[in-house]
């Protein structure tokens, strides 16, 4: 068999045999009633449009407060007042005294290392935080249960 035809058949077989993975919808394509649900027992964040889950990710939610809130502010790269660490894709949701807790990607320490620690925030992989940051807007409802 001619090498080009053999290669074409092999590619066709691989395309059929490989599993497909659902791509995340682009934040620009997101439409409908948006809300975010954080399930403490599962350590997960869910983004909904209506009753449809459009995104989910694991998260460190240790110390997060249960309740119903709204996204209050968004800062592409915030700075922790407690530790001085950078907090990528910050979305603030509630205050504990003078300190605000919220969603963000892995913290960036002064030495450049990453930390997934949570002292009340919802800390998720930075790529997931970036998606959620682009998708949600100030005022988006948040339920932590």
How many runs of DSSP E, i.e. beta strands?
11
Strand order of the biggest β-sheet: 3-2-1-11-4
Shape: globular
CATH top level is Mainly Beta
Q: How many alpha or pi helices?
A: 2
**Main sheet?**
5 strands, mixed
Low-confidence parts lasting 5 or more residues at pLDDT below 50?
2-24, 27-31
CATH domain fold name: L,D-transpeptidase catalytic domain-like
Q: Helical residue percent?
A: 10-25%
Question: How do the SSEs run, as a string of H and E?
Answer: HEEEEEEEEEEHE
- Arithmetic mean of pLDDT: 84
CATH architectural group: Beta Barrel
The H-level CATH homologous superfamily, spelled out, is L,D-transpeptidase catalytic domain-like
Description:
The protein is an alpha+beta fold. It has one domain (32-144): Beta Barrel (L,D-transpeptidase catalytic domain-like). It has two helices and eleven strands, in the order αββββββββββαβ. The protein has helices spanning 3-17, 126-135, and strands at residues 34-39, 44-49, 52-58, 67-70, 73-79, 86-96, 99-104, 107-108, 114-115, 122-123, 141-144. The strands form three sheets. The protein has a five-stranded mixed β-sheet, with no helix packed on it. A four-stranded mixed β-sheet has the order 5-6-7-10, covered by helices on one side. The chain has a two-stranded antiparallel sheet with strand order 8-9. The radius of gyration is 20 Å and the shape is globular. The model is unreliable at 2-24 and 27-31 (pLDDT under 50).
List the helices and strands and how they pair.
Elements: H1 3-17, E1 34-39, E2 44-49, E3 52-58, E4 67-70, E5 73-79, E6 86-96, E7 99-104, E8 107-108, E9 114-115, E10 122-123, H2 126-135, E11 141-144
Parallel strand pairs: 1-11, 7-10
Antiparallel strand pairs: 1-2, 2-3, 4-11, 5-6, 6-7, 8-9
